[in-house]
Amino acid sequence: MNIAWGDLLAAIAFLLVLEGLLPFLKPDSARRFYQQLANLGRRDLRVAGLVSMVAGMLLLFFVRSSK
């Protein structure tokens, strides 16, 4: 398996940019959001993580298959 390290680092960099947008643009909203997230139960947090991973994998699949 040949890993394109440049692509992986670019994806991580893009993730960091996206995660920084909300706290930079709306710090009060970001604080409320993170507090609500911290108050979620274990099961709800796991479901949210699963949904996020599946959505990311589907998006990656469609982006990569359109090439």
Summarize the structure.
With 67 residues, the chain is mostly helical. The protein has helices at residues 5-25, 27-38, 42-65. The chain has one domain (5-65).
Structural description of this entry:
It is a single chain. By secondary structure, this protein is mostly helical. It has one domain. It is 85% helix and 0% strand. It is built from three helices and no strands. It has helices at 5-25, 27-38, 42-65. The mean pLDDT is 91.
Secondary-structure map:
Layout: H1 5-25, H2 27-38, H3 42-65
* Number of β-strand runs: 0
Tell me the strand percentage band.
Answer: under 5%
What is the H/E order? Answer: HHH
Count of DSSP-assigned helices? 3
Helix coverage percent of residues?
over 70%
Described by the principal axes of the CA atoms, the overall outline is: extended
Give a quick account of the main beta sheet: strands, pairing sense, barrel closure.
none
Structural Rg: 15 Å
- The end-to-end distance, rounded to whole angstroms, is 20 Å
Number of domains: 1
* Structural class assignment: mainly alpha
| Mean pLDDT reading | 91
User: Which blocks of ≥5 consecutive residues have pLDDT under 50?
Assistant: none
